[in-house]
Amino acid sequence: MKRVYVVLLCLLFTGFCACGPVSTEKMAKRDPYARVIKTHQRHGYGYYYYALYDIDGNGTEELLLGTHAWQDLIGFHVVYSIQNGKAVQEEPFGLWHWDHGFPPLLLKNGVIRSDITLPADLRYFYYRFENGKLTFQKGLLEDTHEYFRIDPDDEERIPITKEEYDRLQKEYEGDGETVELDWKPLAEYGR
Fold first, then answer.
1. Where are the domains of the chain?
2. Residue 99 confidence class, pLDDT cut points 50, 70, 90
């Protein structure tokens, strides 16, 4: 009977030893975002926070990277998604800068709204996932009580009525509910 216990203890000990630390390479295979986070930490790209959220509702969380905007507000600039098992940076959205508007908003309907506020006008740019890629949908511009839409094809200002402006804004923003992202420091990723 003692031999059985000794054998079991040896097997148990061997099992514990085999469960040592996970290498970064193994972690990256299981978590494609691990390599992205490590690269941003190593090169200090200026993104100090991350949040994970399933923007498009496909069951896989996207990775958002952000920095402090003002006070306690964190604005995200970069979105990564998983495509064919790899982390892929989505195309940049908007030209947000804290001097010219609020940080982008992630709405509960899966739309990202990027704002630019200039002295004479207010611009909203709307993005959403289509076929697995974050794409520019439409822009709305209010310029001294004149209203315009900006289409992704030509990016020209197309005059519209206030009613059309309001309708398009409602179409993209829905009820306007925003997602409260759970921002964490990059250094805490994987903990």
1. 35-186
2. low
Tell me how far apart the alpha carbons of residues 8 and 21 are, in angstroms, rounded to a whole number. 23
pLDDT at res. 153:
80
CA–CA separation, 57 and 148 (whole Å): 30
Q: How far apart are CA 84 and CA 73, in angstroms?
A: 33
Q: 101-122 pLDDT, tens per residue?
A: 678 889 999 999 988 777 677 8
- What is the DSSP track for the chain? -HHHHHHHHHHHHHHHHHT-PPPHHHHHHH-HHHHHHHHHHHHT-S--EEEEE-SSSSSSPEEEEEEE-STT-EEEEEEEEEETTEEEEPPP-----GGGSPPPEEBTTS-EEEEEE-SSEEEEEEEEEETTEEEEEEEEEEETTEEEEE-TTT--EEEE-HHHHHHHHHHHHTT-PBP----EEGGGTT-
pTM above 0.90, yes or no: no
Residue whose token pair is 């958002």? 64
Query: In one letter, which amino acid is 101?
Result: G
